[in-house]
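tool=predict chain=A
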Amino acid sequence: MSNLIEPLLQTDAMLITDPYNMRYLSGFRGGEGILYISGKSHVLITDSRYTEAASKESTYKVEEESRNRRREEILASYIHGEKIRTLGFEDLHMKCAAYQKLRDAMPEGLRFIPLGGSVNALREIKSEGEIQLLARAEQIGDEAFSDLLGVLHAGMTEREVAAELEYRMKKRGAQGFSFDTIAASGPNSSMPHAIPTDRKLADGDFLTLDFGCLYEGYCSDMTRTIAIGTVSNRQKEIYQTVLAAQNAALQGLHAGMTGEAGDALARDVIRKAGYGDCFGHALGHSVGLYIHEEPRLGPGSRVILKKGMIETVEPGIYVPGFCGVRIEDMVVITDDGVIDLTHSPKELIVIG
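tool=predict ok
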């Protein structure tokens, strides 16, 4: 628990309610309940649906809550018994109603201290074990994408494409999906987070596929844009610009630079090509137990990248009513560059 020293220095005890932080700190995968951490106690409070699993997965003391023994009452007994005066809580996660309910149940005089992102920050640098799990999750995505290419054809709907891709990830060991799969074709591809529809793939389409899976709780994330049939010169220009932007970032990223500087590596390429207004989102984000973690690569990001951080590198160009292109890899930051965990080809693939 040495990684908890800094947050604990701010308070006598901490209340952890974010399910990803709960898993990271305790090993409990259920996500339902709370953690109480003090200098004397490490307690996991959950209900009867999860107590057996919690006892197997975690070294924390497991307390069972029920209608007759609410979690707030259990927590109050520890706070009273240990004479806790300040309690840190995850203000970025806890809802107002839950916060008020908690305050009403606590001993008089207890001071609540917002922890901000201090607990989340513990997850920013990944261990070797975490990187191995992230790499396997990304490998599943690579394999599923390769398999999908063999069945893609004009006339399939976006929903069918997404279902085929998800089936192939599941077949290879995915326990779930990092997020809802994006399969956006033709003019729909200009929407970065388009929802798959019944639109059928047609000649001249770009098809953007953004997808990821869960493996032992850890997420993967990758994007590839492919073409159906005929490709125009303007489509080729846009695709090659995005690819050049991503390559510039992959070659230039390293520990010690800011997230803003990392973003600029790709953004400058797109801007100089005349598409600066068509790249509205940040270059990337960290990935771990949750799909969108900190730190991020984007304008205004002053965070200093460190060895062992995971980042996506996903530049894009989106021309409304025409097409969109995004290419995304997931990388490990090192002292002198990156290790790319994504291995699917990036030259423009044309189906049919």
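The chain has a mean pLDDT of 96. The longest helix spans residues 128-149.
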